[in-house]
User: Fold this.
Amino acid sequence: MNIIVVGLSHHTASIETREKLAFDPNRIEKPLRGLVALPDIREGILLSTCNRVEVYAVTRDIAGGIARIKRFLAEWHELPYEEVAQHLYGYHGENAIRHVFRVAASLDSLVVGESQILGQVKAAYSYAAEYGTSGLILNRFLHKAFFVAKRVRTETRIAASAVSIAFAAVELAKKIFGDLADKTVLLIGAGEMGELAAKHFIGNGVRSVLVANRTFERGARLAEELAGRPVRFEDLFDHLHKADIILSSTGASHYIIGPKDVAGAVRRRKQRPMFFIDIAVPRDVDPEVNELENVYLYNTDDLQDIVESNREQRLKEAAKAEEIVAEEAGRFLAWLSSLEVVPTIVALRSRFDEIVRTEVERTMVAWKGISPEHEKRIEAMTAAMIAKLLHTPISVLKHTGQGNRIDLYLDALRSLFDLQVEASEKNEAMLGNDE
Amino acid sequence: MSEVLYVAVLVLYGAATVFYLVFLLRSVGSRGKAAVWTLAAGFAVHCLFTAARYLEAGYTPITTMHESLSFFSLAIVGFFLAMAGKYRVALLGSFVTPLAMMAMLASASFPSAIAPLNPALRSGWLGIHTIIAFGGYAAFAVACCAGIMYLLQERYLKKKKLGALYRRLPSLDTLDDINYRCLTIGFPLLTIAIISGAIWAESAWGAYWSWDPKETWSLITWFIYAALLHGRLTIGWRGRRAAVLAIVGFGFILFTFVGVNLWLPGLHSYR
Assistant:
């Protein structure tokens, strides 16, 4: 039994193409059922996010399965096959397993290490489980993928660092203040960047927001949107000391906050720390401010440097993560192969038994006057022959373990002896394999 | 018996130190658990050692450098373990444990024989005075470690060089909070230790205060911490300044404890 992956992602297709092939998660049942209704597609999962559309399926016929799913994707969206097919990739065997593990662990993401994708994979799986289109193999497979994602998350620092300016600022604030819940953010200037950063802070627990803008009305509108309070720009320095975190993004052509203003504010707030985030270009806050005790000032370039080094860090960590993925993919492949070993052995034995029994019976009928004792002897002899003939092939099957070779053997046996084999979970226990 | 326990303590603290340093340098995984459990095991054995030593000597085993450095180490580890539950700053152990280990190694370098106790000192005050004093020392030791961590973290934030250690270190606020908490525990203990010492001195030597070097230096130390506490409560000394003072204060504690014993002869001198 084989796991195959067919799909496209931001690596192979533009957003326009991805949009055309996307599935609506709320209407996933029909395509899922259509997928598993394809010939020889035993199990199937559909993952559709803004960066990828992928099908994970179980089939016996790798090439045929991949081709059918490619055609299915085109037909379902009523697109010409050639137009779609050029963006689609198809994986099988270890590559397919590795690919799905990499997707779940966010190694294949546009922003490597982002955490959203795991949730999306989980959702896709739960649809498949709900509609019964995933079975023994995909169930195990997806749970393994979640496990790999978790391992990557805990054993590497792939997601430990911020890769956007706003997140970098929030992380710094947490290193200064610890908990942000009782902190106040002062937003100076009602620009888009500042608003975005302020929202990140609110998302991380900040409840109290002040907005100071040159045109008061505009500031008031933004304050309302952020559930904060507007203050008059002229009164800025009467409010400065109330703020723990100051986000400044005005269009002013010169510094609007200098060390003297800040020193006064810090004194008023009894030396409690202040964190200035100056995302304005040209800058709003005099860099001298950073020299003051208990005051921390970061400007756009500083934050950009952090983001850059975090990105590099992530790429380094990704190498570690790839090792984890490779290790787990190998293990899973071994399990997948083991699924068919025992049924193949059983089928092989019964095929031999069947042939021998038929032939013995035919002989017995023709052989008048044979004594029951001789009959027994002949049966014992044929049983011994079967056992001896099958001894080597069976022990080779049991001990080949994992990888492509076992699949080769199993395939050969199945076609040479015309065996019908169904995968079953029992096998694992019978072989005493771990996963 | 007690020698075996002593060696066991050294081994366990040594192992805990190694675990904590590995924990500090290796950034991934949760090796902190092994470290804290090893340290806790060391602490348990250390308590047993101290009890055994108490039974052998018949009084609180804190009258030689060997004993008192060991007791100092015990107090630091005990105080840290008590704090660890509240603050969950495992990394603090990477700073505190090596300190406790150094105290143990220093202790091991002094002769372990039980010295005959001056009859004048045979009193219940010995236990009370010294245990309280060492409780205070332990709090200040942990405050010093938190102070070092604060200065490191503050430097990373100011210089905008955010290395691996920056990620591991807790927030400035947490470190400052630990500093303050230690101060509010250590300062009363130091105060009580000085007062109980004065009362004991009156009954043993006939005078509350005799400007013995230990008394003088204790008073200086007391003033430093009093200034820090006052500064914190009234004018908002905190952060860097509090961290520096906690480190300086602990330097004075060390001198009052070790330096005075070894280099300034007086009523408190013992070896």
Observations:
- The longest strand of chain A covers residues 2-9.
